[in-house]
Amino acid sequence: MSHDTRTLTRLDYISDEIYEIERSRIFHGGWMLAARADRLENGNRTVVELAGESVLITRDLEGKLHAFANVCRHRGSRLCDANDESKQGSLMCPYHAWTYALDGRLIATPFLDANEVDRELLPLWSYHIRELQGFVFVSLAKDPVDFDYWATKNCADVLRLERFNCGDLRVAATTTCEIAANWKIVIENYQECLHCARVHPELTAVVPTYRTGSVFDHTRTDGGVAITGDFTMPGEVDTSPPLPGISHLDATSYYGGTIFPNGFIDVSGTCVIISTLFPKGPHHTTMTMEYLFAPETIASPNFDPSPTIQFNDLIAEQDAAVCERVHQGVTSRAFEQGVLTPKDSLVIEFTQHYLAARGAVA
């Protein structure tokens, strides 16, 4: 591998024009990680923003998932606000009270007779939606690439970790981190550990491999690295039991991976953490972190995920700080491209994957 492999360019990180191309070709032209399926019971809904598009995800009374534009068909009013997770079983527009079933059908139009509006012709605008191991993916494209084929190329790490049965786990807690940096900088930071010894002393105390600057244990073929303690703050103890059915090796190892374009999966012996990136333009990324445990673990009267959450939030804050410094640096006119080293191999892979997905630009 060349020792002078280049990063993306300054404009790739900060250009509004490049970001619009990403929205068209990657975020809205492909599939995006949007939510966890277990957050939606029958009759529920939630709102997510996928690169500037507000999307309604619903589970109808029969249990089927749907995705819609968060827009009323009457006059274009936004139907639901962010963080609106009502369980009322229908969607009512706050402007004129047009009401939709959770499968998108228009079912009520107050003050209008049947001959004044044909409800059957005005369902909500729908998007494509698929579920994989409890992860919900949405595509805004009119005719997206086949999801199963797309998943083999973009969710390979999720498929590799299938033995942890993420579809059977449940979200116990969610935290959010706001990062004043381009979404690609956040992913590149996740993909290397040359920064770990300096930035994450708490993490390297638990994962000795990371002290070397490598993300791999080259004596193993499963992608895992050994852990020497709990992912908790000093003095704290993770009291959660191991994930159901896992081996002793898996219970004493950490595994990580990415979901292109906007997710990370982190697996320890007791918990799976899903980090979802929601780009808010070229200069800001919102990251939500969902903590997954076995349902019986969550139901235990002594269940306390706070030590794990506090530790991960600390790592996220440390990462956010250095990502923001990188973003500030790449805005300099002096920066054209950076340099990647052999230990940046996953960053190189991400760069190549990104450029192939984005395609050429003028």
Q: From the alpha-carbon coordinates, what is the Rg to the nearest angstrom? A: 22 Å
Supply the CATH class of the largest domain.
Alpha Beta
User: From the coordinates shown, what is the CATH architecture of the largest domain?
Assistant: Alpha-Beta Complex
List the domain count as a whole number. Answer: 2
Low-confidence stretches: none
Into which percent range does the helicity of residues fall? 25-40%
Oligomer: single chain
Predict the CATH topology of the largest domain. Naphthalene 1,2-dioxygenase Alpha Subunit, Chain A, domain 1
Q: What best-fitting shape do the alpha-carbon axes yield? A: globular
| Count of helix runs | 11
* Number of beta-strand segments: 17
SSE string, helices as H and strands as E = EHHEEEEEEEEEHHEHHHEHEEEEHHEH
What layout of secondary structure does this protein have?
Layout: E1 5-9, H1 10-14, H2 16-27, E2 32-36, E3 45-50, E4 53-59, E5 65-69, E6 90-92, E7 99-101, E8 106-108, E9 126-132, E10 135-139, H3 147-154, H4 156-160, E11 170-179, H5 183-190, H6 196-199, H7 201-206, E12 225-226, H8 248-251, E13 253-259, E14 263-267, E15 272-279, E16 285-293, H9 295-299, H10 306-330, E17 337-340, H11 345-358
Antiparallel strand pairs: 1-17, 2-10, 3-4, 4-5, 5-9, 6-7, 7-8, 9-10, 11-16, 12-13, 13-14, 14-15, 15-16
Helix pairs in contact: 5-10
Entry keywords:
Rieske Iron-sulfur Protein, 362 residues, 2 domains, 17 strands, 11 helices
